[in-house]
Specification:
Number of strands: 2
CATH class of the domain at 30-131: Mainly Alpha
Cofactor: [4Fe-4S] cluster
Region (Disordered): 211-233
Protein name: Endonuclease III
Domain HhH-GPD: 39-186
Biased composition (Basic and acidic residues): 211-226
Largest sheet: 2 strands, parallel
Strand content: under 5%
CATH architecture of the domain at 30-131: Orthogonal Bundle
Structural class: mainly alpha
Length: 233
């Protein structure tokens, strides 16, 4: 099966399973989304959603955030991890939004990437989910599933993003990237995954991929006859 055909079948499955794609991070506007996405680096969405109410109760705008010190921000966001770096980035990017953008979050990836602590993936999430601009944010989880499903053989998330953008229609990017995340959490974990029971891996993953995952201890696939242990006589 060609990659394009595989992508069409995968999209049909994802659309059926996840017709709605709510944004996982709680937010009220582009600024609170930007802060939440920044906090989600190496942290679960669930933990971020537990932390942000206290932070946004103190500061839900750039002007309010700069009135806090980085140390005050750090104490609030400490459960999210990497709090020294994240608190400094939040404080400085809030200053830059006031200085350079009139207190508003810019709507382009290029401008967002100039802000401290904002990389390509974070910028892509913000433009997609806050402004509706077609983007395909790829994190390590989407990178893993794209490889597992045979949609990309890329060694890095940047190339995986380019591959997926070629396979899925532009108007579906914002939804598909969330659908893949939801599917990964519910059906396609990194470890202990039974490939033959997965609605997508059961037909999309190649035998070579299944064997590679078994060798690495990350998945459980259907064993071929030659791979079965021989009985002792």
């Amino acid at each position: 099966m060609k990659r394009a055909e595989k992508a069409q079948r995968i999209q049909a499955i994802l659309d059926e399973l996840y017709p709605e794609t709510p944004v996982p991070l709680d937010h009220t506007d582009a600024y609170t989304l930007l802060i939440a996405v920044l906090l989600s680096a190496q942290c679960t969405d669930e933990r971020v959603n537990q932390v942000t109410p206290a932070l946004f109760a103190r500061a839900a705008t750039p002007a309010a955030m700069v009135r806090l010190t980085p140390e005050e921000i750090r104490e609030i966001i400490k459960p999210c991890g990497l709090s020294p770096q994240k608190s400094r980035a939040i404080h400085r990017l809030s200053e830059m939004l006031l200085e350079d953008h009139g207190g508003q979050v810019p709507g382009s990836i290029e401008e967002l990437e100039r802000l401290p602590g904002v990389g390509h993936k974070t910028a892509s999430v913000v433009v997609a989910q806050a402004f509706g601009v077609p983007a395909f944010p790829v994190d390590t989880h989407i990178h893993r599933l794209a490889a597992r499903w045979g949609l990309s053989a890329a060694r890095n998330v940047e190339q995986t993003e380019r591959d997926l953008k070629q396979l899925f229609p532009r108007e579906t990017w914002n939804a598909v990237h969330l659908q893949i995340i939801f599917f990964g959490r519910e059906h396609c974990p990194a470890r202990g995954h039974v490939l033959e029971d997965c609605p997508i891996c059961s037909w999309a993953a190649s035998k070579a991929r299944a064997q590679a995952e078994r060798r690495a201890g990350t998945g459980k696939g259907v064993e071929t006859r030659s791979a079965r242990p021989r009985s002792r006589r």
